[in-house]
Structures
1.
Amino acid sequence: MTMRLVLFDCDGTLVDSAAIIATAMRGAFVSEGLPPPPVEEVKAIIGLSLPRAVAVLAARHPEAPVELLVDSYKAAYRDQALTTTHQELTFPGTHEALERLSRPDTLLGVVTGKSRRGLDRILKEHGITDRFVTTVTADDAASKPAPDMVLKAMGETGADAAGTIVVGDTVFDVEMAVSAGAQAIGVAWGYHATPDLTRAGATAIAETMDELPALIDAALKERGR
C-alpha cells in the first residue's frame, strides 16, 4: 500500500486563533512601551515562528527589544490560555474532515509555527491528538517558509514528496510545501487572501472543510497516489 501524508497547519487552518494572538501581541508591545501593531498586520504574520513574527512586526521600531517582546508575548498568551479556555475554536467541519481523512492509506500530521506546548494543549483541548501521527512545531524545525517542517514530517513517517500535501491558510504554508517538493492546498477561511495562496503555488483552494477530502484525493491522484 502506498502511503499518503496530509500535513495541516494549525492557526488559521484547524483553529481560529487570531483573536488570542492579536491580544497577546498587543499586550507584549504595550508592555515594552511600543505602539501595538494593527490586527491586520498581526494576522499577516500568523504562521511564522514567534521570534520571526515579532521581528517582522517590530521592524519599524529599530530600538525594539525583540527578545523581550517575545518573552512578553509568551507571558500574555499563557495568561489568556490559562484563564479562558476554548478561545481557539476549530473551524466548522474540522472534526468531520479529519474523520473522513483517517484512512488506512493516509497519515495525518501537523506542521505549525506554534510551540510544542501550545500545539499539544490545543490538540488535547479539542480531542484530536490521536488523529496525527506526526507533529512538527517551531521548537522542532526552522520557521516557515523553509521546507524543514515538511521534510522532518516526511522523514518521521517514511512518506515521499509526491505523496505529501500541506493544507494551510498562508503563503508561508504554500511556499514551505513547494520548497519541500510537496503539493499545497490553500483554505479560504484563514488569514491570507486566496489569490495570494494561488500565486504562491497552491494547486487548489478549499472554500469549506467539507471540500478538503475530495480536493486532497484529486491532487494526490494526479501524482499517482
Note: Residues 122 and 204 are 27 Å apart (CA to CA).
2.
Amino acid sequence: MSGGSSPFTKMLDNVFPRIPPFLDLIGVQAGLLAKGMSVAVDYFSESSTARFHEIIVIETQARELREKNLDILNNAFSTPIDREDVLRSIVNLEVPVASIRVVIEEMDALKIKSDNAMLEMAVVLRDSAAALQRGFSKLDTTPAQAEPDAQVGLQCLSNVDKVYRKALSNLYSIDDDLAKMRAHADGAEVQAMIHVVEMLKRREIYRHLRNIASKMGDAASVLHNIVIQIS
C-alpha cells in the first residue's frame, strides 16, 4: 500500500482537525526556562563571558519557540486544556528567560560583579524553574502529581524575598562611611560617593531578580490552575 494519507483520512482531518500536542510543546518551553535559569546560576557563580553568551542563545530559542507555539495556537481548532491556559503557559514560561537575559546584560553594562545575594536568588529561581519543568511534563500522564511542583513555583517569590530583604539591609549599611567622614579621613567623601553609586547599581539588579521570582510565580499559578482542571 502506498504511503501518505488516504482521501478518507484527509476528509476526517478537514472535518475534525487534529489537536496539536500542546502539552508537549509547553513542556519544551518549560525545559528552556529550566535550562536558562541553570545557566544563570553558573553565570552568577563565574561571571564568565561564555555563560553570558549561552544565556543569549537560550533566550533566543525560548522567544522563537514562544512565537511558534503562539502561531500554532492561533491556528488550532481545539486545545487539550483551556485555550487561555495554553496561551498563559506559552507566554509566562518565556518571560523569566527574557528577563534573566536583561539582568545579565545590565550587569555587564554597569560592570557589576555578582555577589552572594545574587547567587542565592538565582539558585531559588533555578530550583523553581526545575520544579515547573517537572510539573508541566506530568500534565499529559499524571497531572495530579504536578501540584507539589506548582507549589514550589508559587513559593519562589517568598523565598527570594527573604534573600532580597537581607541583601538590602546589608547594602544600605553605611556606618563605616559615616565614621570615616566624621573622622575627616582622607578620601572619605569620595569613597562614600562610590559606595552610594554601587548601592544603586546593586539594588537595581536585586529588584530585577525579585521581579523574575514574581513572574515565576505567575507560571506556577497557571500550572496550578491546569492541575485543578484536568486532575
Note: The chain has one domain: 17-230.
3.
Amino acid sequence: MNQHKLNTSEVRADQVASQKLQTLKLGLDVHADSIVVVRLLDHSAPQPAQKFAPAKFLAWIKTQLPLAEQAHSCYEAGPFGFGLHRDLAALGVHNLVVQPVCLDEQHKGVNHDKSDAKQLALRLDRYVAGNAHALATVRVPTPAEEQKRIESRQREQLKREVTRVAAQGRSLLLTQGQREK
C-alpha cells in the first residue's frame, strides 16, 4: 500500500478550496499612495502583509469576496475622509473606521505599516468574535455631512492663519521701533 503524506499547507489549501470560509477579516493601514493589508481567514493566524496601490486594492478585494460568506475590514480614521469606507461597503464588506491609537502596545519601538495592519486585523478578529472593546469605532458621516465638516474646518484653519500672520506683522513692526495704531 502506497501512503502519500500531505503536509499541513497542502491540507489547508485543500480545505479552503473545498469549502467556503465563514469570515474574511482584513486589517488595513491606509496611506495616500498605498494600502497595507493583513488577512485572517476564519480564525487562522494573520497572513503576511501585502501592499497595494489604492486602485489595485479594490480590484484585489473583489477577488477575495467569493472566498467567504462575510468579509470584514477596518482602518484608522485619518486625513483621507471616508471614501474608502463607502467603496468597501458598496462591495459588501462590513467595514469599520476606528479611532487612531498607538498600536505598539509592547513599546518595542517598532511601528510600521505591516505591524499596524497586523494589530488592526487581530483587534478586528476579537471585535467580530464579540469583544466590543477591541476597537473604538468612528461614526461615518454622510457625504453631505462630510462636505460641511470639511468647509467648517477649512474656515477655522484660515481664521487661525490670518491671526498668526497679523501677529507676525505686529512683531515685525515692534522690531523696527514701530507700533500698530
Note: Helices lie at 8-18, 54-64, 83-91, 113-128, 143-175.
